[in-house]
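Customer escalation, tier 2.

The customer says the design service returned an amino acid string that "doesn't look like it belongs to this structure." They asked us to rerun it and document both sides in this ticket. The original structure tokens are below, unchanged.
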């Protein structure tokens, strides 16, 4: 198991669609019981559950777990603080995407206007 400060030394995430809880545990340096606990605390983390309540994580889940791990173990956030950070961070991403989309649309409309002249 990796030390909490070794997030940079985590293995590369393979190109797979689904990962078991054991694989995610190794990829993120976190024990399986911690992953199950984080599922309860972070609504953004929701692996697919199949027969027998087996969890199957997708790539975005693994990336989210790595971000949560970094916030808690490296940056010193509490569970509540990390949860608030992730909610705030999602809002920023949406605002930035909206700005980019508006700029793209304005550029396309200006191009259309030039064609019509």
């Amino acid at each position: 198991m990796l030390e909490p400060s070794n997030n940079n030394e985590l293995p590369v995430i393979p190109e797979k669609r689904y990962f078991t809880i054991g694989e995610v545990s190794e990829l993120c340096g976190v024990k399986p019981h911690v992953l199950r606990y984080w599922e309860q605390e972070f609504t953004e983390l929701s692996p697919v559950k199949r027969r027998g309540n087996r969890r199957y994580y997708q790539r975005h889940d693994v990336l989210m777990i790595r971000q949560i791990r970094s916030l808690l173990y490296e940056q010193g956030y509490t569970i509540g603080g990390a949860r608030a950070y992730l909610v705030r961070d999602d809002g920023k991403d949406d605002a930035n995407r909206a700005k980019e989309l508006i700029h793209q649309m304005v550029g396309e409309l200006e191009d259309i206007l030039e064609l019509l002249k």
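Tier 2 assessment: The sequence is consistent with the input. The longest helix spans residues 79-116. The two ends are 65 Å apart (CA to CA). Sent an explanation to the customer and offered a walkthrough call.
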